């Protein structure tokens, strides 16, 4: 398969053929995960460390399950009880982890660029599980797989990404990935929740849901990232839902076959109506959760192959 990356730090540096390689392998892992026996030996003998500096439910559980199903030894590092809380720097943490000789390091961090810094200090493969407002690559990949399975393709679709764009690493990664795969992307939200320079992103920008949703094939809702907000970005949650919440009336403006997505966690009654979120005919939110495990299995498998090849080449070089 065509996947050359040493780390998975973002979508930005992946070529379209590498994205397809991840999705194609993930399809095989979807089938594996639906069997009675879900185990593989792709990561047998390898050690995976999950280090989450931010709280997470879906992503951490998904990475842990993915590693175990691939046969890795998986360790979840409790940052709340680690030396980081005692003042240890990120670089010292990286050096400490490196001395343990892990093979895969999964990191979520509140600061943009922190995962890239870690990757430059360790000898293993690093996967970005979300860093600040920067990127969340595996979320974009699982979203892409969900879209491809639901729509039968991942090109020439109209995708509406709605809500808190400014603070969302999910929006950024999806914007990059879907753009690489030649889709028409619309960003919908209040001007206060649009990033600066949004006009240079190569997408359409709307501050009215009805206009932005017209004819959309995919409607991707985002939550309000209150933990990243510093000030009053919206008048009130009630007003926000009235203007930017997705309910049956708003969804009617999209294509009749449009699918509804959400990366979670959902705030029902704030950005999405509960009935829409649970609509088995339109919502693929639970499919996203399922695809998350398969995509993370595929990413770790591909990175492990490259890591083994690199180590093998170095061993041969040493012998020569």
The average pLDDT value, as a whole number, equals 92
Largest sheet entry: 5 strands, parallel
* Number of E-state strands: 9
Evaluate the radius of gyration: 20 Å
Low-confidence stretches: none
Helix fraction by DSSP (H/I, runs of at least 4): 40-55%
What form results from the Cα inertia axes?
A: globular
**Element order: H for helix, E for strand:** HEHEHEHEHEHEEHEHHEHH
Task: State the separation between the terminal residues, measured CA to CA.
Answer: 28 Å
In what order do the strands lie side by side in the largest sheet?
7-6-5-8-9
Structural class by SSE content: alpha/beta
What is the percentage of strand-forming residues? 5-15%
- Helix segment count? 11
What do these coordinates show?
The protein is built from eleven helices and nine strands. With 320 residues, it is an alpha/beta fold. Helix 5 (137-151) crosses helix 6. The longest helix has 35 residues, at 285-319. The mean pLDDT is 92.
Strand-helix topology:
Blueprint: H1 16-33, E1 47-52, H2 58-69, E2 73-77, H3 90-99, E3 104-109, H4 114-119, E4 125-131, H5 137-151, E5 158-162, H6 169-180, E6 184-188, E7 204-206, H7 209-213, E8 218-221, H8 237-244, H9 248-251, E9 259-261, H10 274-277, H11 285-319
Brief descriptors of the model:
320 residues; Asp/Orn_carbamoyltranf_P-bd; Asp_carbamoyltransf_Asp/Orn-bd; alpha/beta; pyrimidine biosynthesis; five-stranded parallel sheet; four-stranded parallel sheet; 11 helices; transferase; EC 2.1.3.2
């Amino acid at each position: 398969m065509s996947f050359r990356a040493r780390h998975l730090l973002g979508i930005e540096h992946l070529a379209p053929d590498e994205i397809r390689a991840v999705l194609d392998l993930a399809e095989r892992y979807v089938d594996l995960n639906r069997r009675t026996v879900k185990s593989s030996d792709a990561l047998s003998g390898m050690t995976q460390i999950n280090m989450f500096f931010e709280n997470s439910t879906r992503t951490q559980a998904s990475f842990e399950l993915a590693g175990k199903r691939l046969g890795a030894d998986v360790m979840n590092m409790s940052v709340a009880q680690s030396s980081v809380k005692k003042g240890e720097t990120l670089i010292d943490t990286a050096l400490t982890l490196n001395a343990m000789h892990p093979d895969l390091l999964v990191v979520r961090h509140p600061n943009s660029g922190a995962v890239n810094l870690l990757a430059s200090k360790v000898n293993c493969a690093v996967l970005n599980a979300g860093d600040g407002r920067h990127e969340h690559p595996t979320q974009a990949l699982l979203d892409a797989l969900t879209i491809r399975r639901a729509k039968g393709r991942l090109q020439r679709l109209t995708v509406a990404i709605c809500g808190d764009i400014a603070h969302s690493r999910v929006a950024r990664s999806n914007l990059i990935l879907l753009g690489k795969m030649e889709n028409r992307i619309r960003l919908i939200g209040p001007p206060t929740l649009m990033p600066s320079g949004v006009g240079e992103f190569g997408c359409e920008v709307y501050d009215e849901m009805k206009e932005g949703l017209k004819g959309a094939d995919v409607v991707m809702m985002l939550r309000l990232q209150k933990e990243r907000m510093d000030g009053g970005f919206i008048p009130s949650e009630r007003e926000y839902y009235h203007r930017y919440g997705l309910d049956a009336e708003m969804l009617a403006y999209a294509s009749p076959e449009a699918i509804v997505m959400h990366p979670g966690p959902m705030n029902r009654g704030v950005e999405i109506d509960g009935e829409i979120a649970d609509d088995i005919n339109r919502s693929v939110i639970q499919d996203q959760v399922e695809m998350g495990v398969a995509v993370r299995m595929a990413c770790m498998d591909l990175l492990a192959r490259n890591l083994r090849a690199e180590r093998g080449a170095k061993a041969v070089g040493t012998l020569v």
